Amino acid sequence: MALAIGVGACRGQPSEESPVVLLRNMHYQQRYNSQAESAFYGDKRTMRVPPEGTLPRFPGGANARYVDFTVGRDDGFDDDRVNLGHEPDSAVYVATIPDSVGHDFGSGDALVTRGRQRFNIYCAPCHGATGDGRGIVWRRSQGGGVANSYQYIQPTNLHDERLKHVPDGQLFATISNGIRNMPAYSSQVPVRDRWAIVAYVRALQVSGAGNPAGGAP
Fold it and tell me: Average pLDDT, stretch 19-47?
């Protein structure tokens, strides 16, 4: 009898009730799908042809040694302190950016300049150009409409007093491995550039000292 009741309950028809999704996150996005028609471009194609003269991206991204930001291969370092952000065979983060990274760039100014460029590409959309945690991704989620039915948690304000005192290696590891809603960037941003971003974050923290909003108006 129990078997007959169980089989009878499996009618094999789709439910008309909406699925229960606790975190909407990226279910509603203001974007195009692959092969979809675009109302923006004249040829109606969503999938764009790469601009003439562009080259495939090498594994590891752009090499920091290329000061003109051209594409190159990042061979990494032999030092685990540089590659991981912590001491070998230890969970202790390195306190400051390893000297070998600075030497690789040639100067501190070059390190920060490269970090600013990479930060504006990978970090600013969420953390904001000033690091105040009010990037365009978060700000657009605060509006109305179906696409904005889920309000994203505000990204971390990089001017938070706690972050000013964490080791540089911890910032590097966070960029590499991600944390909470933030994804890992180790596959997108090479080792040198991750350290450059750390240097630029420190520069932002200095420039926004005393302003809890990170210097943002």
Answer: 77
Round the average pLDDT of the chain to a whole number and report it: 75
Residue among 195, 214, 19 nearest 118 (CA): 195
Torsion angle of C-alpha atoms 198, 202, 203, 207, degrees rounded to 10 = 150
147 CA to centre of own chain: 21
Instruction: Say if 199 falls within a structural domain.
Output: yes
Residue where the block lists tokens 């996150």: 25
- pLDDT score of 107: 81
CATH number of the domain where residue 80 is located: 1.10.760.10
Structure token pair of residue 127: 């953390």
User: Distance between CA atoms of 189 and 194, rounded to whole angstroms?
Assistant: 6
Residue 86 sits at φ, ψ, to 5 deg, of -140, 170
Give the range of the structural domain holding residue 158, as residue numbers without chain letter. Answer: 75-207
Residue 122 included in any domain: yes
Which of 217, 194, 214 has its CA nearest to residue 130?
Answer: 214
Asked whether residue 186 is domain-assigned, the answer is yes
Q: What is the pLDDT of residue 57?
A: 58
DSSP code string of 10-24: -------SPP--S--
Asked if residue 193 lies in contact with residue 118, where contact means CB atoms within 8 angstroms, the answer is yes
CB 38 within 8 A of CB 49: no
Q: Residue 133's pLDDT is what? A: 86
Q: How far is residue 191's CA from residue 60's CA, in Å, rounded to a whole number? A: 8
